[in-house]
Amino acid sequence: MKIYDTKTAPTPRRVRIFLAEKGIEMEYVQVDLAKGENMSPEMRTKNPIGKIPVLELDDGTCIGESDAICLYFEALHPQNPLMGTTPLEKATIAMWQRQIELCLFNQIGMCFQHTSGYFKDRMTPIAEFGKVSGISASKYLNVLEKRLVDNEFMAGTSFSIADITAFCAIDFGKVVDIRIGDSQVNLTRWYDKMNERPSARA
Amino acid sequence: MKIYDTKTAPTPRRVRIFLAEKGIEMEYVQVDLAKGENMSPEMRTKNPIGKIPVLELDDGTCIGESDAICLYFEALHPQNPLMGTTPLEKATIAMWQRQIELCLFNQIGMCFQHTSGYFKDRMTPIAEFGKVSGISASKYLNVLEKRLVDNEFMAGTSFSIADITAFCAIDFGKVVDIRIGDSQVNLTRWYDKMNERPSARA
């Protein structure tokens, strides 16, 4: 079993942190996104949309999408749950995980892709859209700041996959100068605790 | 228990079809997106990002995001599974569900929002981005056509939430003239079967 990974990209980092939190050892194979190695015919057989990460099982079965890979390991190793146990916990975590992904992680990603031109060989960057996405991401930090006034973690009282997604998004946000503001004391407190976890180095 | 719903919008339709497939009765409260009723202070207390659908439990607890609402009912009523039972089934369905959402559903949504100006009172439409999103969506139909050559359903041999997401995306695609092509015989066969299911009328 192995995971096709890119050490510098924010999405595969989510899986690395998730597995570190679960205490699951993994073989990682580095794929160079800048060189487009993820778009090769071989990688396209593993994941039709040519994205990283991809989990490859020993029988050759492949699973793409960081959320799907995390779900696989959560189902296989339910101890130390990061996606909830009761129906309400599962749904609450899924809600925050999704909103943080749509409103923060993806907005920062769009801001980077559309303003930097990093992937301009394989997409059409539209700078104005990148700028609007960055503004949306910054605004959403206010939603999270408010959320953390009465909650220790994004989905409530327990550390979950939603915290991992937010942490990876905020760290990646630095490349487009999207940062937690000085007045966002709850986000700062939460971020510092995330950053102290050993998994943050995964 | 009730769901805040908008009968004409593609996202809440995913939940209605999911619940119809599970045989779960539900009270639906209509919210007018065009009038911005979803953005009212009251609705914002139910869902901080003001999106529909929202599930409200009898104790007032609210869950946003269609995926999270479906997960709640899947966990509560595991019979007739639509999100898989084994770790591999769960992960495979989650992978296709996610890719169909990112590469089709959301691209069609962006195409509609950025080219129609429907929500221009609450977002910045960028026509060029809308056009690019529509092209991405059309291209992804080729991925699904290929997928269905050897698979009856999107995630393999069983009907799942991934089929619901694809079906709602393709139906909504008509408003921006994104349609299954005449040469896409597998997608056509799959679509016709989806459309024959009683849940398609939910």
TrEMBL record, chains A, B:
Coiled-coil annotated residue ranges, if any: none
Residue intervals of the GST N-terminal domain: 1-81
Entry keywords, A to Z: Transferase
A single Gene Ontology CC term: cytoplasm
Protein's name according to its UniProt entry: Glutathione S-transferase 2
Gene Ontology MF annotations: transferase activity
PANTHER family: GLUTATHIONE S-TRANSFERASE OMEGA, PTHR43968
InterPro entries named in the record: Glutathione-S-Trfase_C-like, Glutathione-S-Trfase_C_sf, Glutathione_S-Trfase, Glutathione_S-Trfase_N, GST_C, GST_Omega/HSP26, Gtt2-like_N, Thioredoxin-like_sf
Lineage, broadest ranks: Bacteria, Pseudomonadati, Pseudomonadota, Gammaproteobacteria, Alteromonadales
Keyword Transferase: yes
Keyword ATP-binding among UniProt keywords: no
Domain GST C-terminal: start-end pairs: 86-202
